[in-house]
Amino acid sequence: MIFLRRVCILDTKQKPAAKLTAAQWISRSAFCFGNVGHSAFYGVMSTYFIIFVTSGMFDGLSKHVADQLIALITGLIVGVRILELIIDPVIGNIVDNTKTRWGKFKPWIFWGNIVSGALLLVLFTGIFGLAKVNWVLFAILFVIIFLAFDIFYSFSDVSYWGMVPALSEDSNERGIYTSLGAFAGTIGWNGLTIIVVPIVTYFTYLATGQHKEGAVGWFAFAAIITALAILSALAVCFGTKEKQNLIRNSAQQKTTIRDVFSAIFHNDQILWPALAYLLYSCAYVITNGVLFYLYKFVIGKPGQFWIVGVIATIIGFCTSPLFPILNKFIPRKWLFIMGQVCMALAYVIFIACRSNIFMMDLGLVLFNINYAQLVTVLTFTDAIEYGQLKNGQRNEAVVLAVRPMIDKLTGAISNGLVGYIAVAAGMTGAATAADMTAKDIRTFDSMAFYIPMALAILSIVVFLTKVKLSEKQHAAIVEELKDKLAKGEIKTTDRQATPTEETNVLAPADGQLMALADVKNEDGTVGFPGKGFAIAPSDGRIYAPFDGTIKFTFSTKHAFEIVADDGLETIIHVGLGTVNMRGEGFNVHYTDGQKVHAGDLLIEFDRDLIRQNGYLDTVVTFMVRPNLVDVVNHVQFGTTVHHGERVIAVTANK
Q1: Nearest partner of 385 among 495, 462, 257, 483, judged by Cα
Q2: CB neighbours (10 Å) of residue 342?
Q3: Cβ-proximal residues to 542 (8 Å cutoff; 6+ apart), any chain
Q4: What confidence category does residue 478 fall into, taking pLDDT thresholds of 50, 70 and 90?
Q5: 48, 309 in Cβ contact below 8 A?
Q6: How far lies 501's CA from each of 191, 372, 457, 624, in Å?
Q7: CB burial of residue 224 (10 Å; 0-12, 13-18, 19+)
Q8: For residues 11 and 583, what is the distance between their CA atoms, to the nearest angstrom?
Q9: Closest among 285, 464, 491, 255 to 373, alpha carbons compared
């Protein structure tokens, strides 16, 4: 909760954390807790399952047979996960096309966790010891169960991260949610490193009386993490709410499989960040996958493996809360690069200073100073609006499926290499550090450190030269989409957009009335698109222009949509360029979905702060789908108006 309070304070310089509503606190807390279990579950499936396979699944079989089965399992895992590179975008498309009373994400988060959790437990029984009876049948069932397990996990993963753009359209607010998720993920992922050996050893001892990592202990470990994942999923389902707005609703049409791949391959700001993240993720997951072997078979101290988790957790506690602070001064691109530089330095230490405990701990610190996942998820979420503007496609879950798709690929690579290292270096069964040869150590080093270091450096090159979508560019894209709405170039699809009778639109502010054609924009151009009017305000208050319902508010609080009781959709936009203020200086007196009456105070804004930031405080009122309405002016432009005075009348055109 300390981190949540800190993030909330950072969200705006003018407003303390107390200004957040109870719903906002619950939403942020629920999303944050959601990734504790979700990330821990991923850690079990991507890292510890293969360790279980190499060390406990085939207890009782001869070493020769066990090694063959280990090679078979790792090969099957790699094959299944490569196959899912095609399946995951389809999963994203299914999620995108889902419409239920609970939204499109929550049903998949819930059932994805339930089903994948049950199947994971079956896998941790070794499919009830079937390999010892019939290894052919075991292999067939393993492929079926593992594929089903991965598919249902993908539904949950795609839906969890896919919720980020649905919770907010503002890049900064998305950054807060993503930071919270990453912070919780640090606890979930690295917490496993701390608890895995004690839990597995303890439950093995209870069952067998032996202090070792046995099959019973591994099953107990998987059961505990599965229960945590389900609890976390329930928190997300009950604690968060999708935010409906015109930009989202304007792209709610059904998408085809062809649209899915088009959304990815025709959006360069998905492809290049994806490549950079692929290189990083390969390096990170490969190294994480073999750190247990480093402590058990190279250093010879498996009992000290918990240090890896402690350091990673502490660094995660420090770095994740710092992200919103640093991102106020340092663009996301440079935070990504900074993390990769730290990672490369960590590999140098791991290679050259292994005998020095202090330097190894320093290497673990540098290895975990990384913002790659945060930056990638945020870049992907911003690329959703980029793609919508560029090619008219807004595929939230599909775009957000790219990252878990990459995680699966790198997880497959990691599993394959871990299995290869375990067999090639003799790190299976009852082997110890005393059994390792110099050749075994060289094999380990090449896979664990040299290759990942090269990948980390390559990711820097890609992100530095090819990723162009910055926070400022995204704000401009959101504004351009808003302008297209004003021009009627983007159509909403979920409700009636024209009045059923004449609607009187009252002045929402005090000041001088202006024609939209006379509005001076922040870039110096003159003219605002669409039908409506503008006011050069004399104070910083916005009032309801008619009886209606607040449908949505931009997270930047500078614009909102209000729908009249008879169906007229109107957007009130406070200031030009104020999207870049990220909500600073705006105080909202309503909640989305609230019924309001003409003249109700809706927003207070700091006109002086807007001007100090170099923006204009002009209040613009415009109709959505202007081609469907006729507007009659009742007040001459250039005159002074007071809030509550009738300015225009709007009717459906004939």
Answers
A1: 483
A2: 20
A3: 508, 509, 572, 574, 601, 602, 603, 604, 605, 619
A4: confident
A5: no
A6: 60, 53, 63, 16
A7: middle
A8: 8
A9: 285
pLDDT band at 254 (very low <50, low <70, confident <90, very high): low
Find the angle CA(168)-CA(273)-CA(171) to the nearest 5 degrees: 20
The CA dihedral of 526, 528, 534, 540, to the nearest 10 degrees, is: -80
Tell me the H-state helices in 353-371: 357-367
Where is 631: in which H helix or E strand?
A: strand 629-633
What whole-number distance in Å separates Cα of residue 162 and Cα of residue 105?
Answer: 7
Give the helix ranges, DSSP H, for 97-130: 106-123, 126-129
- Give the 3-state secondary structure of residue 499: coil
What pairing do the DSSP bridges indicate for beta strands 559-564 and 548-553? antiparallel
**Is 64 tagged catalytic?**
no
- Residue 340, pLDDT > 90, answer yes
Give me the sign of the Cα torsion angle 327, 330, 333, 336.
Answer: negative
CB-CB neighbours of 99 under 10 Å: 11
Lowest-confidence pick of 3-7, 305-309, 411-415, 426-430? 3-7
Residue 252's pLDDT band (boundaries 50, 70, 90)?
very low
Distances (CA, A) of 185 to 78, 181, 355, 406, 588: 24, 6, 31, 17, 32
In the predicted structure, residue 516 carries a pLDDT above the cut 60: yes
Q: Which of 474, 558, 573, 643 is catalytic?
A: 573
Distance from C-alpha of 6 to C-alpha of 43, rounded to nearest angstrom:
27
